[in-house]
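Researcher: Structure for this, please.
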Amino acid sequence: MTNIKENLLEMKNITELMTDLAYSAVFLQDKSISSEVIKLYNRIKELEKDTFKLLFRIKESEEERMFIIDLASNIREQAFSSVRIAKLSHS
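Model: Predicted structure, token format:
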């Protein structure tokens, strides 16, 4: 479970950074910052995939698994929202 917690924490921290960078990309009209947000999103997807692999290797209740899946998915959705904001700098 430790690796799962570490993955979720890293995902949360990266997503917070992505949000800050996304708004900076828009306000500064900086495509390089926007590109960094997209790279970070790819890291989020890798961490989510790794988390799901770990989740099905350990013994957890169905409710706990669903909670972790929902949490990871919601973090990824927030990260994707940051990508959408960052892409506004391309306009």
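Researcher: Any notable elements?
Model: The helical segments are 2-28, 31-55, 62-87. The mean pLDDT is 94.
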